Amino acid sequence: MKVIFNAKTFNKEMKNIIDYSTGFLDGVQTGKKQFLNNLGPEISELASQYIDSNARVDERSLHHIYEWYQAGDPSARLYNIKYTVSNLGLSFTADFKQSTTIRDGSRVPFYNKASIMESGQSVTIEPVRAQALRFEVGGQVIYTKRPVTIDNPGGNTAGKFAQVFDTFFGRYFSQAFLRSSGLAEYFNKPTVYKKNLAQGSRAGRSHGLNVGYRWVANARTA
Known about the structure:
With 222 residues, the protein is of the alpha+beta class. The protein has two domains: 7-120 and 157-217, no CATH class; 121-154, no CATH class. It contains eight helices and six strands; from the N terminus they run ααββαββββααααα. 21% of the residues are buried.
């Protein structure tokens, strides 16, 4: 019995498999940025919907980040949730928009409404064109020519947006989203690597790059 071993062919296949493997890993890194850019808008909107639902349940705490009398309405949001993709991964920040609606009894919008109420900053109101201020306290109408300082114009709103924002990203997103979306299971089972191994043993690095990139970049939530 005679066995002929073609070392040249074997070495070539092994080199291609190694090149395919390293190419796959490099493709994963390249595809990661595209995946995060795809995921960013989805997570931003999901976070916004989470905040909207909390505002509908607890209007007193979150009414300040919406136009007047529209707490929880997506079209009345006074906040933006933005995402950034970097070498560290995906990060999210939020800022506030100007209010354009006018509260009953007023003539102009509340400038910096969301940010002032979120910070718990006091507001001083004084007459500009009129000779006196008119406002209600406990159902009683009061007129005064002196400036009026409101210590807490939003009520129980100071820090409430930051709190619900942190709850979403610190608890729901990190503990539940990756699992419920199917992404955790998807990334824990890179079966695509094995399925393409035979072709990778012939094509080498270029095929690995393509497979790794597509596997990450095309990942989708359930």
